[in-house]
Amino acid sequence: MGNEPQIYGKGLVSVVTPVFNGEKYVSRLLQSVLDQTYPRVEMILVDDGSEDRTVLAAERYREQFARKGYRYEIIRAPHKNASAALNRGLPLVRGEYLVWPDGDDRLAPESIEARVRFLLENPAYSCVRSLPSYFDDKTGLPAKAQERRGELAKEELFWDVLEGKTFVCCGCYMLKSQRFFEIYPEKRIPEYDVGQNFQMLLPFLYRYKCPTVQRELYEVAVREGSSSRRALSERERAERYEGFERLVDDIAAICAIQDKPSEKRLLQWKLRRRLDLARSTGKWDQAVRALWRLCLAGGGRWP
Asked: Are residues 115 and 209 in the same domain?
């Protein structure tokens, strides 16, 4: 009986969000979920060991979620990282569809409805994404885009996401839960101090095409001091780069990437990043070695 496939609630959308020290902004996301025009949603918020009153701020929304008819779960976990927090929430997913917005962003009112409608009208697809917009966390005014949009007609996005040619804004993507958990049957993604969107997205995008609904339905907060935007020391940058390399090796194994052209492209990705790190820190001997290896791998010239 333990091997029986899980039945996901037809039409139900699971929103899973990790949050750390989000007392000042988590209400923004929660209110945007409550403001959705789509009627079938469950909200799973995982507190990653916050040191402020994030949980108290989230608890204030219980009655509103109950009135809306949305299931609402708050999970408390010891502090580790965003991917570990997601792993606390993924086993609770009951929805046919899965989204995982950041705790400081917000969904436009039709964000969920528009993407569900697309997948219903286009059943051959297992995922879809919409466009991001950006706002300044302090002023609320529009802010400069943080990522490239890329070729919006393109549907094979694995390499574009990996190589930074298109956006990875987590709340823009909606996946079919059954397909996602076929990739991760243990309902756990690899845990790293870097990333969580690569783990969530790349194995899925390696298998499935992802079209774009060309509407700005996810609003990204540009916030000073956030973990993804704060200035890093030289050591922290090096550790971050190494962490992403290990993560991508893990993802390549999950995808069973073994063909020589793909392996070569992954190596080129690593070497370009090593070249970028060496140049930005003035380590010219390392830069020359990375550039030489990149040229040998068929992907190099001095930028």
From this structure: yes
